[in-house]
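Lecture 7 notes: from sequence to structure.
We start with the chain below.
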Amino acid sequence: MMIGGRNMGYCGCSTSLACCSPKKAVQDKVCIDWTISHTTGTDTIRVIYDTNVGNIIASGYFKFISAPLAADTVTLTFLNGAATVEEITAITAGEVKSFTVQNFDSVQITVPLASSTGVYIGEFCLTPRYKI
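Predicted structure tokens for the same chain:
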């Protein structure tokens, strides 16, 4: 079809562009405060988000509020089954990390074995989007 001297696709778009029907999606927001008690000498792993919905796209932030020592770190890992999708490492107390990630089914925090014994505290907010 010709419009204004330009060849247009069946949905009214320029043929150089792909025309797509609108996708329907829902959006949630999940925020939690987390606390992990850790003992030096072993990794402490805590799952903080788990879902059975596939094909998630999400954004959010991870806030690490306090640790026994300033040098102590944690790692935030997004997994699909046992495979790591994305990992944010060496986060120290006082830091906030933002993220956008897709195709994961769980999120975990790891306090590395060398970190100090004590309590680790933070906040995690996730805005997942699900296609329907």
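Points to note: Residues 22-131 form a domain with the Jelly Rolls fold (CATH 2.60.120.1330). The two ends are 32 Å apart (CA to CA).
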